[in-house]
Amino acid sequence: VRYRYPFLALNAVLLVAAVVLMQGFRRDFMPRMEEGSILYMPTTLPGISVTQSSRLLQMQDRILKTFPEVQWVLGKAGRAETSTDPAPFSMCETTVMLKPESQWRVGMTWDKLVAEMDTQMRLPGVANAWTMPIKNRIDMLSTGIRTPIGIKIFGPDLRQIEEIGKKLEATLQMISGTRSAFAERVTGGYYLDFELKRDEIARYGLAIDEVQMLVESVIGGESITTTVEGRERYPVSVRYARELRDDPERLKRILVPGMNGVQIPLGQLADLRLASGPAMIRDEDGQLSGYVYVDMTGRDIGGYVEEAKKKVAEQVQLPAGYTLSWSGQY
Q: Who wins on pLDDT, 311 or 261?
């Protein structure tokens, strides 16, 4: 009994000290494990062409290769031949393999290297995101978000979802520690619509299917056979040359075979109209959705999200029927 109370007092002091120390701990999902490489995942606006996407990818890779800590760089734009990687041309992925740390510049760390790269990769219209290959795959498989923090917007209308995303993007840019914030432009796709004139088609004795098949085969391409090269199979498609289908006015002059050998210009059978719409439709739990990707640095995720939630609640008013869900590592 004589020695019990001093030990209780010491335990109480240690408990209080532990609680005080814990108040200053950073809150992260899990500690970062260095993989010896960097995954650079920039995002640009939808509607970018194949040529421009390739040019942008090569420019980024050349800049990354100039850093002395980099061993080699491999970039990818677009999606692979699989349904598990539905990546558009507006999202690139570049794997940067690093040299051993013994060959790095004196005082260089992973965070400092990424900060230098981010400064050099500030290109107009491009939002940067930096992670590591294995870590990124785990994050995307578990949450669908490739950045440390993401906001999912749910609602019935894609245009309204895009407007909410733009407001969130502007709000998050003002928070300390934000490296980049990018809201998906879910309605940024460009289309050429063919509005068929049913009366004109009937007057020439044609069927709707005949005109649609011509548009599909001439412009979109029709698969006619498959070439066999060893163990590989490649479909062979036939369509008009690019110079005959890259202008709506030229498309109007495409001749559609009618009855008795009559050739009717496509412009007499359909109105051609340029329109914008969703580049890709995403839905979760039966609702349309759009993502806001947030890359951050210099702060713990828990503290950042707490401040971000307060800012969003103060500055972004959600219409009825729309909700937000915070995701990512958080």
A: 311
